Amino acid sequence: MRTGRPVNLELRRPFTFAQAMAAGVSPSALKGPMFRQVLRGVHIHSSVPSHPLLLVEAALLVHPQEAFASHTSAGRVHGVPLPSLAEEHVSVFRKQDRRRRPGVRPHLAPADALVTVLQGLRVSSPLQTFVELAEILDLVDLVVVGDDFVRRRCFSPQELVHYCACSRRRGAREARHAAAYVRANVDSPMETRLRMLIVLAGLPEPKIDHRVYDVDGRLLYRFDLSYPDQKIVVEYDGRQHRDDLDQWDHDSDRNDWFIANGWRHVPVFVRGIYRDPAKTVQRVEAALRERGADLPRRLSDDWRPHFPGH
Predict the structure, then answer these.
(1) Which CATH number is 249's domain given?
(2) How many of the other CB atoms lie within 10 Å of CB of 224?
(3) Which of 72, 171, 226, 300 has the highest count of CB atoms within 10 angstroms of its CB?
């Protein structure tokens, strides 16, 4: 019984049980310390570190060549920010090509599905991935994905709205709703979440990427979210801003500029998104009312299902 290095088998890529047998690897060797199981029936050399794309590749490996990664699996290949979801999603064009096993969720794709190749893997196109994710993700998580796709120039907000309007796939209605909130020039998922908290509360949508120049036309400051007419900046402030001494100096100079030019700064930290979103809504509302903004008498509670707080 052969237990040494397999012949004509790439050890650092997932391989099936059948491929291992054809290369002369015994079942007992597969169960030994040299290999580990990625999915049922799919193995890899134990020295290869775990990585999300290994699971995607393994799930595709047990399907026909025409299959492609879809939904959250496609999202991981594209590199968009996603919540932690365990299942791998694979789409096929024929019912008989679906392979059901623990950790893999097969789908039947329409004949006109848009498939591309990325990092050597067949995956849904960015636009199609967005609609697929609408079957799974919460509204805010889906807008985070859309903003990230736009930031990386996979499509524009207008292209996304048009695609979703024409789509007849499952999730198309939810995708159309989310696409209406997707914007360009967004820097981070937390910026998207802060903007969505504000908008879903019924407050005016802040301007994205407002820039301030000096008299010579040089860029002074760039504000992620702001209300220029009311001279209000609403800004997500990550931990790195407090740990970086150069950032401290920059923030100090900018605060002096705020005071000298009559701007109000409303910083929001991570707890203001995840732990106490109601307080963030109240702070932004108070700043806008103080500056005379035209606001509804009563704000919306639409944000609450998406930002439950703790």
Answers:
(1) 3.40.960
(2) 21
(3) 72
